[in-house]
Amino acid sequence: MPNFVRIGFFLALRQIRRASKWTTLLITFVMTLTFLNLVVVSGILVGLIQGAVDANKMYYTSDIIISKLEKKDYIEQSPKVISIVKSFPEVAGMSARYIEGGRLEAGYKSKVKDTDTNEAASSFTGIDPVAEDSVTNLSKFIIEGEYLEPTDYDQVLVGAYLLKQYFPVESPGFSTLTDVSVGDKIRVTVGGLSREVTIKGIVKTKVDEISMRVFFNDWQLRELLKRTDYNVDEISIKLKPGADPILVRDGLIQAGVGAYARVQTFEDAQPKFLKDIKATFALLGNMISSIGLVVASITIFIVIFINAITRRKFIGIMKGIGISGKSIETSYVFQSTFYAVIGSAIGLAVLYGFLQPYITAHPINFPFSDGILVAPITETMLRILLLVVTTVIAGYIPARMIVRKNTLDSILGRN
Amino acid sequence: MSLIRVKGLIKTFVDGSKETRVLKGIDFEVEQGEYIAIMGRSGAGKSTFMYQISLLDEPTSGEIWLFGEDVHNMSANEATSFRLNELGYVFQDYALLPDLTAEENVALPLMMKGESKREAFNEARIALTRVGLGARTGNLPSQLSGGEQQRVSIARALAHKPKILFADEPTANLDNESSRSIMELFNEVHKSGQTIIMVTHEEEYSKLAGRIVKLDDGLIVSDEKVK
Predict the structure, then answer these.
(1) DSSP annotation of B144
(2) Residue B50, in any domain of the structure
(3) How many Cα atoms are found within 13 Å in the side-chain-facing hemisphere of B129?
(4) What is the pLDDT of residues B108-138, one digit of tens each?
(5) Which residues in chain A have Cβ-Cβ distances shorter than 8 Å to B84?
(6) Min distance A343 CA to chain B CA atoms (Å)
(7) CATH number for the domain including B72?
(8) What is the DSSP letter of B210?
(9) Domain limits at B78?
(10) H helices within A57-144, ranges in order?
(11) What is the spatial distance between Cα A150 and Cα A100, in angstroms, rounded to a whole number?
(12) Model confidence over B30-82: pLDDT tens digits?
């Protein structure tokens, strides 16, 4: 070990050990906050979008989603596709859905004038309630009423965003039903056929697409659509833990599913706006982190500068008795490294010991996602490295400024 | 060969447009083993003179040879290294490092010279014992009296066996009893062959030296051996 490093360490250790405990605590506290600012702010920003991505996967696509090809009305040869899917050992469950656009109408019995419309457009979705629940846990998102039973006839689940009380937005081209609740009868019109159904439950998830659908038992919607070929419109597939969605996707395509349908992993199927926002928020997070780094470096610069300037006389004495400037500068580099490392270590403990588990258990309730804290350990370590390097530079510069001053001037306190 | 040889030493301080010439052309020589007291009234330039010849400051002009080496063109780093290896210092206000214990203060220059921590601390304890502080090696400067701090300072200056010991008013901040004991210590050290150059304004202590150099208005006005 070079002698100047040995002496630098010797001096730094004693200065830290004999410094005021309150000063050390304060600096460490500031460094901990800086570290958290560096990791948590960007982690929450990214986590907000990650929450939306997770929600899209959890409530809609599951691990893999198979959907109809462009310009096709449904997934052709659906029974064959479903049997191929079922043959994959990685598949834990699947939900095949029939989807058709239609209209809902309420209050039609008490309507006085033709202009008294209470209508909304929606996607009618036919599901096997048991299969759907095993894949997306849809039953957990019933906020009023009850979930569908496989034998329910003329009973539907209505997405909350189709009801004014849950989605009070006035927008041209978009309408919601007013004064409608569980137990009310509404009229559904699909493919030129109308039928009166009862609202059994109201569904609300963080995925708008789900909260704007009307769910039927698949066999009833199939009847309404007269789809006797059993061809469905989309299939969500849940994989067993540890299974790789990409491998299964590729396997399905190779097994021939690709000829009849589009096969995507949950990542492939992410809406483009989510991908774009994720990239934007990551950029924003990095910008905020950069500001955090600058704040950290200025903090350490000031701390070390004040420390060095108040100890200028002693720095002069050390140079006077022959201690090299390099050793003295190194001692300040060690001190700033100490503060950065201790601050980061405490920050790490707070982050992984408290903040991340807490936010995972109690996600931040954003309108379109359950916001989590995204802080992968590799990225966190990279940020710690950045913080330490910045701190070292910020500690070295003021030390060098003071050490370079004339030895005798420093000893005598002359300017 | 003289340990120190100075020729035409001039030091001028500049403050804005005002120039103050403190040393006005000093010639001076020091031989091995001498104990020299530099005296003079306040403002005579005695401390400034000592700072120039001990490489703590750079003269405006003139020549200084230390141990036959012209120190005029030494870089700051070379001067630091020279001070570490060849010179020892005792300052008026002790100049101890407050975060270091007595033995750490003494051991630091030894470690800087490359000694292992164990060796340096052993030698530091020996040096402190020599100045009567063997029992207070672990004390911080703030836990020692003025006289004790000055002894630590002397131990630090001597531990690395310098060729010349410079002392700037070493008793100025001490009471009579502590001052006398410090002077006895200097005497003792000198008897062992140590070259000492001490700035003092106290007549009584200057008489303990073998040679008294008096400065006035930036010039040596007398240079006498003490009988």
Answers:
(1) S
(2) yes
(3) 6
(4) 999 999 999 999 999 999 999 988 888 999 9
(5) 321-323
(6) 23
(7) 3.40.50.300
(8) S
(9) 4-98+163-225
(10) 78-86, 129-136
(11) 20
(12) 999 999 999 998 888 999 999 999 999 989 999 999 998 888 888 888 999 99
Q: Say how many domains are in chain B.
A: 1
pLDDT at A171 over 80: no
**Contact A66/A269 with Cβ under 8 angstroms?**
no
Q: Other CB atoms closer than 10 Å to residue A260's CB: what's the count?
A: 20
For chain B, what percent of residues have pLDDT higher than 90?
A: 61
Q: Is the dihedral of CA B186, B190, B195, B198 positive or negative?
A: positive
Cα of B61 vs its chain's centroid, Å: 22
SS3 call for A119: strand
Residue B120 resides in a domain = no
Query: At B39, which amino acid appears?
Result: M
Pairing status of strand B195-199 against strand B35-39:
parallel
Nearest CA in chain B to A10: B108
Weakest mean pLDDT among A98-112, A176-190, A230-244, B93-107: A98-112
Whether B192 contacts B198, CB under 8 Å: no
Residue owning tokens 């040879």: B65
**Average pLDDT, stretch A14-22?**
88
Domain boundaries, chain A: 3-57+273-412, 63-265
Considering only alpha carbons, which residue of chain B is nearest residue A326?
B77
Length of chain B: 227
CA dist B62 and B8 (Å) reads 5
Q: Is B150 domain-assigned?
A: no
Chain-centre distance for alpha carbon A389:
29
ipTM: 0.91
**Which one of B77, B140, B156 has the shortest CB-CB distance to A324?**
B77
Task: Confirm whether B14 is domain-assigned.
Answer: yes
